[in-house]
Design brief:
The chain is α/β, with parallel strands linked by helices. The chain is 30% helix and 30% strand. Strands 1, 2, 5, 6, 7, 8, 9, 11 and 13 form a nine-stranded mixed beta sheet that branches. The chain has a three-stranded parallel beta sheet with strand order 10-12-14. It is globular and about 65 Å long. The structure holds 1-O-pyrophosphono-5-O-phosphono-alpha-D-ribofuranose (PRP) and uracil.
């Protein structure tokens, strides 16, 4: 899958289908139903890239004709962790590719005045130290939410974490990178900047509101 290393720690998935769907997602005329489908599809395509280094183990397979060797993904099951709310939109698409994945949840919202994250929920599998985690949120803006979510995952014992977002701002990439240089960031786009209200430009607006029709 075509990818572009853009900033240290950031990989942009430049596959034509991802870029095509992203343009539809940005369009303010795209209705909620289609927006949800696009987030789902983009997440699935991004997961193809994010899973490229999953460890494999050799297995024996009996075909109808003979025994042969094949590969299976090894180790503890991958864990998807959406940051509520908007991260929820990325879960189902990835589960279609990796149906055995576990799903944790982190509840966070951005305080409207300070733009700092406020956390309200945390649940991941108990054996976090032995699992690979994909932390999911369509938007990486100031980076406060992502950095706080990674802190929570690490407190729970996680050591192998990737952050998957659809649109990243340079400010967010820098903040997450400074706080957690060990966490690779995979995005569909690196946008220009944040506005005074902490929204990504050109961005796609409020991802949670567009996903759930709450504007
Ligand atoms: C949005 C988005 C991220 C966060 C990004 O959520 O889904 O979680 O903002 O901003 P940051 O990088 O500056 O922290 P929001 O706080 O609007 O909550 P919601 O999903 O519940 O609407
Ligand atoms: N959260 C969003 O949903 N959109 C932005 O542009 C920034 C933060």
């Amino acid at each position: 899958m075509p990818t572009t290393p853009v900033l240290p720690g950031l990989t942009v998935v430049s596959h034509p289908l991802v870029q095509h769907k992203l343009s539809l997602l940005r369009d303010q005329a795209t209705p909620t139903k289609i927006f949800k489908e696009l987030v789902d599809e983009i997440a699935m395509l991004m997961a193809y890239e994010a899973t490229a280094d999953l460890p494999l183990a050799e297995v024996t397979v009996d075909t109808p004709l003979e025994s042969t060797t094949g590969k299976r993904v090894s180790g503890k099951k991958l864990t998807l962790v959406p940051i509520l709310r908007a991260g929820l939109g990325m879960v189902e698409g990835i589960l279609r590719l990796v149906p055995a994945a576990r799903v944790g949840h982190i509840g966070l919202y951005r305080d409207h005045d300070t733009l700092e994250p406020v956390d309200y929920y945390f649940k991941v599998p108990a054996d976090a130290a032995e699992r690979d985690f994909f932390l999911l949120d369509p938007m990486l803006a100031t980076g406060g939410s992502a950095a706080s979510a990674v802190n929570s995952l690490k407190r729970a014992g996680a050591t192998r974490i990737k952050f998957l977002c659809i649109v990243a701002a340079p400010e967010g990439v820098r903040r997450l990178r400074e706080a957690h240089p060990d966490v690779p960031i995979i995005a569909a786009a690196l946008d220009r900047e944040l506005n005074a209200n902490g929204y990504i430009l050109p961005g796609l607006g409020d991802a949670g509101d567009r996903l759930f029709g709450t504007r």
